[in-house]
Amino acid sequence: MLRKTMIAAVAVSAVAAPAFAGSYQEAPADPVVPAPAPAPVFSGSDWTGAYAGASLGYGDLDAELGSASEGADGTVYGVQAGYDYDFGTFVLGGELDYSATDLDFDGTDLDSITRLKVRAGYDAGQTLIYGVAGAAHAESDLGDDNGWILGVGADYKLTDNVTVGGEYLYHQFDDFDDSDIDIDGSTLAARVNYRF
After folding, report:
1. Which of 119, 111, 118 minimizes the C-alpha distance to 77?
2. Regarding beta strands 90-105 and 68-86, do their DSSP bridges make them parallel or antiparallel, or are they unpaired?
3. Which of 167, 103, 96 minimizes the C-alpha distance to 134?
């Protein structure tokens, strides 16, 4: 009896094994989902270094002698060079520029303005927003004299080395070359610089 039971068990196993083998399927693996990329951290852009470039703009100045006034406006164009140091979000630098002009005060030409400027600004990444203060030296048919300037500007990095921007400057020359003539006014210029 035991022998018949064992034979029957072996027979059932032999028949059932292929059926179970065919029905067994490996569970599919969970799909691999990549972890989301971390949000970029704003790190700003380093403005430390020397630069040089060119400018082209418009000037509008007034010359006053007592109650009489004479205006002059026209093109200003020139070159500039400077150095900035980036402290993180604060940038401090200096610049020397030279601008030739075609400003004519009723027959008296203002030939050029040379400026020595301190620039202080905010590093906004690809953009530098800054203020300007400094000294200016103007040369004209009447003579030459020193004055002061104040202004604002912005530079934008097209590449690591090339920037474009604009700058507004207010100029003041009191008693120009001891002539009792006061000259004041503004220039607005587009600028391009190469940063080294």
Report:
1. 111
2. antiparallel
3. 96
Contact between 101 and 76 (Cβ < 8 Å): yes
Q: Give pLDDT tens digits along the chain (196 positions).
A: 555 555 555 555 555 555 555 555 665 666 676 767 665 544 458 999 999 999 999 999 999 988 888 899 999 999 999 999 999 999 999 999 999 998 988 888 999 999 999 999 999 999 999 999 999 999 998 899 999 999 999 999 999 999 999 999 999 999 999 989 999 999 999 999 999 9
Q: Cα separation of 143 and 187, whole Å?
A: 20
Amino acid letter, 19: A
Q: What is the rounded distance in angstroms from the CA atom of residue 69 to the CA atom of residue 116?
A: 28
